[in-house]
Write a structure and sequence with these properties.
It contains 4 helices and 6 strands. The protein has helices at 2-18, 38-49, 109-114, 117-137, and strands at 23-31, 58-64, 66-70, 76-79, 93-97, 101-108. The strands form 2 sheets. A 3-stranded mixed beta sheet has the order 2-1-6. A 3-stranded antiparallel beta sheet has the order 4-3-5, with no helix packed on it. The structure holds zinc ion. Residues 70, 72-73, 75, 86, 88, 90 line the site of zinc ion.
Length: 138
């Protein structure tokens, strides 16, 4: 299965960059023309992530539409399938996007813990407000 080897690659690359830290979230770009089924990739990712730093991590997929530039008339257009000619009839195209599979970012579980710190300071300021509230009641 194509998606399973991709998922294993994603997991391997992320594990390498995570340096022993558990990973909470991975964002990947998948081109519409890459023949990767996002649903299958999600399924395989969960399987590939098992017993790794990515266990339980969320995979988010951003789909990238195909884009091409015509070598003849120079116009840029959306490529809905490979082998599609330009409106001028030319098949000589520079494909600009649509076949990528790229890990755009990943988030460590620890980073999510750090971002929850504002909640703690909110609680502190809430208790700091209380004495003032008692004063106005007096
Ligand atoms: Zn053209």
């Amino acid at each position: 299965m194509h998606e399973l080897s991709l998922a294993r690659n994603i997991v391997a690359i992320c594990c390498e960059h995570a340096a022993g830290q558990p990973v909470g979230r991975v964002l990947v770009e998948v081109g519409r023309l890459s023949a990767v089924t996002p649903h299958a990739l999600l399924f395989c990712f969960d399987a590939a992530a098992r017993n790794t730093l990515l266990q339980g991590a969320r995979l988010e997929i951003v789909e990238v539409v195909g884009r091409a530039r015509c070598c003849l008339c120079g116009s840029e257009f959306t490529l809905t399938q490979l082998g599609q000619p330009c409106a001028c009839g030319s098949y000589a195209l520079d494909q600009l996007a649509g076949e990528e599979l790229r890990i755009r970012s990943m988030e460590l579980v620890e980073a999510a813990t750090v971002s929850s710190i504002p909640n703690t300071s909110d609680m502190e300021s809430a208790s700091a407000v209380r004495p003032g509230f008692a004063e106005t009641r007096r």
